[in-house]
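Title: Prediction job returns without error message
Component: structure pipeline
Severity: low
Priority: P3
Assignee: unassigned

Description:
Job completed but the reporter wants confirmation the result is attached to the right record. Sequence as submitted:
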Amino acid sequence: MKLLKIAGIFMTVGVSFACNAQTAKTTDVKTAQNTPFEYVAEQFADIKVLRYQIPGWENLTLKEQKLVYYLTQAGYSGRDIGWDQHYKYNLKIRKALENIYVNYKGDKTSTDWKNFEIYLKRVWFANGIHHHYSNDKIKPAFSAAYFNGLMKATKTTLSPAIVEVLFNDADTKKVNLDESKGLLEGSAINFYGKGISAKEVEAFYAKKTSPDAKRPYSHGLNSKLVRNSKGQLEEKVWKSGGMYGSAIDKIVYWLEKAKSVAENKPQADALGLLISYYKTGSLKTWDDYNIAWLQATEGNIDYINSFIEVYNDPLGYRGSYESIIQIKDFDMSKKMEVVSKNAQWFEDNSPLITEHKKKNVVGVSYKTVVVAGESGDSSPATPIGVNLPNADWIRAEHGSKSVSLGNIIDSYAKAGGKGKLQEFANDAEEIALAEKYAELGDKMHTALHEVIGHASGQINPGVGTPKETLKSYASTLEEGRADLVGLYFVYNPKLQEIGLVDDWKKLGMESYDSYIRNGLMGQLVRLEPGANIEEAHMRNRQYVSAWAFEKGKKDNVIEKITRDGKTYFNITDYDKLHEIFGQLLREIQRIKSEGDYEAGKALVENYGVKVDQKLHAEVLERNKQFASAPYSGFVNPVLIPKVDTKGEIISIEVAQPKTFAEQMLNYSKNYNFLPLEN
């Protein structure tokens, strides 16, 4: 499970290792100097590209640095898998766009060329031609005629049918959650063969069984479902020798190197299971790996790598490729470990129905980490917190790992501004609370969301998994449930009692202010006029806020104020809002525990999808004064190995890419291990 940053108004196969190292050494990078760190790399369209540092890198041993380097190389090696997963033509389109960008010798001062550059950068950022957040197809602000001229001038080839797709209304949505349009028929995501319906998929997986019904396999997680020559459905498994095999073989190559420098045996054993999973595609091995991975808690280095989150599958089966490499932040991890140690207290004192509570919350480990590299669905747009594994039965029996990406959060904070807070906050008291408690409140809510939220609650015996019972609503309901756990406990004296905050009430008040402000107004800056909300996290923030607003109307718990033609939301009773959040948390857990599809659908559709268009227009107008883009993401630091005459690494330096384009072109050149059609 990922926690995404609430960014609105707040805050070569066959290349030898030595050759790879040499490639990295000659990359044009901007090395660190004794000058202020430049967090903002560039801004275009609705995107701001940031940089992040790797504090403490110099304190790692060479062996630890090697481990980080090998793991990042494994992550980057699978990058093109994500591109192909997002849309079947993405790799062909990217190659064409980049060939034009590198080889065009014509007028680069024209508006059309500038719009072409922006379009390419938006495609890079989204890992494809659909927006990374809204899922809408990105529309070029130049004509098809101009594009054909660029292709001719640079001798670029791209089939006319694909060129047409760039400009027409086909495949307009990467992930469609509007059932009336067909969840698969209306989605461009490359997880299913053409013409396969949701009912066919459900029937296919209904026949799948696991050796132990209480420990079900994650069927469909690592495959594409297609129709064979006989008209039957079959899976194309993502593994060595299977679909995406050439890239996976490179991932395995680097993982084996990582295993050779593992910090301890549990870590090495887990890496060995991940390698076996990639080689075989066995879902049993995947489960074994997840258990071994979450139990390997010692050491300074950790990682996420594989097909994991199912947000991009409207049916919730298939995992998108992603990779995050992490270095332990010792100071913050020590502080946040307190939350993990008190996990059972939080569960016992939650407002859930008794039979929906876990009697024994096990193995919840929490760390604040320093990110050293990201790839796939975690880059350029990144989460700020992650809780894994996702299988409910593993979480119940063995626990989970939660991480907060500390240096990512830090970069967000240092690259941001305060103007939007003054514009949208209701009064001086709200602003003062935000200025003092927003950063700590964000960290606490992230910790509670990831550690306590995703680890809490249990499904009733005999009830299927959420993807089976709640279907397309499973992801947003789970994220809302975890958010509500965080909201319920961030306003609780327990946080002060265990030494995490100095004033639990004021911190909680600020957290409530910012959540309601963003859920009802702030995040609307991410939407085009007239649009509904499609993304799971945005849906959950709106339905939580809108449900609470409606339920508190009788007592005016949250008042809607119009002042000088501007709308504000003011919380009048934080204690009652705390109770309301508890009521909604209990109901969503009931929905999950009982598999109540209709109730889940009603909650999301009635409160989380439709947008108040008048308020949306107002928010967009008020936001025009701010130059900062509503979406942010990151370029990765460049790890540069220096080798001796024998090709052995003797040191690894950290540098920063000069530009976003430089890094994207470098990745396309050095990690293009897939054919253009898979």
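Comment from assignee: result matches the submitted record. Confidence is low (pLDDT under 50) at residues 6-33.
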